Amino acid sequence: MIEANVDVRTTDGYLLRVFVIGFTKRQPNQVKKTSYAQYMQSKRIRKVMTDIIQDMVQCKELKDVVRDLIPDSFATEIEKACHWIYPLHDVMVRKVKVLKKPKFDLGKLMDLYGETNDTTTTIRAPTDEPMR
Q1: pLDDT of 72
Q2: What is the dotted CATH code of the domain comprising 2-112?
């Protein structure tokens, strides 16, 4: 089992901490139940995991990152890239934490969800008459 985590900022200003986990794969015709990677192999795999996550998240907005997390495209990229170091299986993004959110911008929110509506409704002030 090899775990890695990386802090990365998206293009729209969110700071995310992404946790990735991968399991070492048994060789074909292997009798032993366990298969362990050596320390330097684990270290190199961890480095590849963090590099791939940084490259794939830094150039996208948060909604695009979430869209890519659903089909698990990060995991397939990591599995392909780490295969030559040590074969992995069941690679997945275990958790994503939002560490910092960008400052709230009402103008950007209104641009995102369409035009502003200029029609206003008048609300009468409550009177001091008792309710019946």
Answers
A1: 85
A2: 3.30.479.30
